[in-house]
Design brief:
By secondary structure, this protein is of the alpha/beta class. The protein is 39% helix and 21% strand. The chain contains 15 helices and 16 strands. α11 packs across α12.
């Protein structure tokens, strides 16, 4: 089993330690560690911190970055995004997913929860670049074939999973797109499979006022939350993306059922979808995580932007600057995401999975070092990220990811073909 040593590195509490990694787990964190190591990183001048866990994205949408900005959600989807997506091939999805993985690694993210077409191509991209990923088996019935193509791909994924074709870093989720694109029959089937196989369900929910209004109008005034509860989907296995338009009773019910929230502050602000009720959700005891959404609506995959906007919007929505302090925003972006997916990570301590980010302490945004968590949340960006380690493997060192030039060239070519079709 390989061993790695990161020597004389600074932790976010200011202490200077050595970090020993054995295989894919932290072996020891102590002031001075002796022994024989296959790899040694001189951590002097570096800050070690937990990495980011992106709990909602559509990775391959990197290819659609900038094609339809400054529009209302349903116009954006119906008139621009869905027509563009209809042109995407499996090869395009792989190229876009590789670009997304590169972008996430370079900004300190080691895990992403994805919902998109041709999911096997996204798995291949994550495996190639060494990331962790939860990949959605999509149900989307509002398409010409009624979603049969998605179900065929989902059967293939289940078969590959049963054969042990994926590494331990990859897990499969159930991913009904939204209540307005998936039938009750399909949702009940998904609820049953989730309970039987203990699979997480990942769904867009209560993203816009229009979505909620139209659902109530077509369901006799029933709220989307009550509907999902009746179907049996509200459980600790459910992760809801956006979850903006909720009242106090609905938030309390979601928390009681153990539902996980994925908050996308940048995408929500850009599409003017509404303000996530951070203080109310936090007070309910529900687990809040952070996602970036896709690059067509954000337009990047930086969890630095999400942390800062999460904290600032929470204060603004509550009218209280004490809401969502830096420590909370950092936890929401790191350890909360790991907890949501049952990943033994998000903390640098012996026995945990060896995932971490090394930041350059000479970065202007990390200077001065009065409060490095505050610096990471409110000041830093991806330029401060020097090294990324996931599952005990170095994914980036000295800001260089192996093969990044080829990944960018491939994505640029795919995007050019997309535009010419």
């Amino acid at each position: 089993m390989s061993r790695m040593l990161i020597s004389r590195v600074t932790l976010i509490d200011g202490s200077v330690v050595d970090i020993a990694i054995s295989g894919n787990r932290f072996e020891l964190v102590a002031p001075r560690i002796e022994g024989s190591f296959d790899t040694v990183i001189d951590g002097a001048g570096l800050l070690a911190a937990p990495p980011f866990f992106n709990t909602h994205t559509h990775a391959a949408m990197t290819l659609l970055r900038g094609i339809a900005d400054d529009l209302e959600l349903f116009e954006w989807l119906n008139d621009h995004i869905w027509p563009a997506e209809a042109k995407l091939t499996a090869a395009d999805i792989r190229a876009g997913s590789r670009l997304a993985a590169l972008e996430m690694i370079k900004s300190g993210t080691v895990f992403f929860n994805d919902m998109y077409f041709h999911p096997l191509e996204t798995i291949r991209a994550a495996e190639e670049l060494g990331m962790r990923a939860a990949i959605g088996m999509i149900t989307l019935e509002s398409v010409p074939d009624g979603g049969r193509g998605f179900e065929e791909r989902n059967r293939e994924l289940r078969e590959l999973e049963a054969q042990g074709a994926f590494s331990d870093r990859i897990s499969l989720m159930l991913a009904p797109h939204a209540l307005y694109t998936v039938s009750e029959t399909a949702l009940r089937r998904i609820a049953a499979e989730s309970a039987e196989h203990n699979r997480i369900v990942h769904i867009h929910l209560a993203e816009t006022a229009r979505e909620v209004r139209e659902f109530r109008a077509s369901h006799g005034g029933k709220s989307p939350i009550d509907y999902l509860d009746e179907i049996g989907l509200l459980s600790p296995r459910l992760l809801i993306a956006h979850a903006i338009h909720l009242d106090d009773r609905e938030i309390a019910l979601l928390a009681e059922r153990g539902v996980i929230f994925s908050h996308m502050p940048c995408s929500n602000r850009k599409l003017v979808s509404g303000a996530f009720r951070f203080r109310a959700v936090e007070a309910s005891g529900a687990l809040i995580t952070l996602g970036t959404d896709g690059c067509a609506s954000n337009n990047n995959l930086s969890m630095f932007d999400e942390m800062k906007n999460c904290a600032i919007l929470a204060k603004e929505e509550a009218g209280d600057p004490r809401v969502c302090p830096a420590e909370t925003a950092f936890a929401v972006a790191t350890v909360n995401g790991a907890r949501a997916f049952g990943i033994d990570s998000g903390v640098i301590e012996a026995g945990r999975l060896a995932d971490l980010v090394l930041y350059a302490l000479d970065s202007p945004a990390l200077t001065p070092a009065h409060h490095q968590v505050s610096n990471l949340v409110y000041a830093a960006d991806s330029s401060a990220v020097d090294t990324v380690i996931c599952d005990g493997r170095i994914l980036m060192r000295g800001r260089k990811v192996p093969g990044e030039t080829e990944i960018i060239a491939e994505a640029r070519a795919a995007a050019a073909r997309l535009g010419s079709r």
